[in-house]
């Protein structure tokens, strides 16, 4: 049998019942039904001393990001006791009831909530190879939380739950060796739009540069992006977590700004300077970054400040030459 099952489907099909032997599902389903964590089967029939495994395989992203070195934390969330899922001590304070989950959406919400309590129950850390694969063996019966601790250069992966055994409602058997294809989403980008503070017009035809950092003091450099002189933007691919962006090369004729832009990507969405934003369908959020002319002078709309300075400098030189010649002539 070769069928595909995605992480969303697996996390919505965790159950117990009559032992049907070890089995591995290798592929992805085109359906994600609303099912319960504990469907119609009886958890009392699951041997509490059973063992299984979880294999993870990351599928390719649209922009072919590398799939290696993605680190997952594997946490034991609950055990099977007297025919029910019972949360371990570290997760009991979450007050969720795994036995009362009704839909796959409920399952995803519970996984996000439990991830906030994942401290001391770490079973192991898993790191993917160049094919995006990793595996954990000899796992006891129960429910496990997997969350990406470090996505490296890959995409965002929401935390998800897997149970051993997992119930396959198509073939009606229990899976003790489970292959998972986690859902992953493209991370949004932020485009810093360079704008003249006096005119509100984009600063184009003028070189500038921005740098991203991992710390608010802007000492730990992550990436350097040269501005697009055609549209006056600098676009960053930001990873899950917090990134700080600062101007490190101002357009000619403008003051270097000390403004630091805080960008955060988390389970709830995208935040810029601690305010939630909508990156839109193209997954690019535009942030207006004002620049002030040196000396505070205003420019005409569409005028290149650098050119104005060059012309002004040339005029001074010409006036100086004329003055010297006139003085010599008088002598």
TrEMBL record:
Q: Where are the transmembrane segments?
A: 305-324
Every copy of the SpaA-like prealbumin fold domain together lies at 189-271
| Species annotation | Faecalibaculum rodentium
What this protein is called in its record is SpaA-like prealbumin fold domain-containing protein
What span is annotated as the signal peptide, if there is one? Answer: 1-20
Keyword hit for Cell wall biogenesis/degradation? no
Is Membrane tagged as a keyword?
yes
Which keywords accompany this UniProt record? Membrane, Signal, Transmembrane, Transmembrane helix
InterPro entries for this protein: Ig-like_fold (IPR013783), SpaA_PFL_dom_1 (IPR041033)
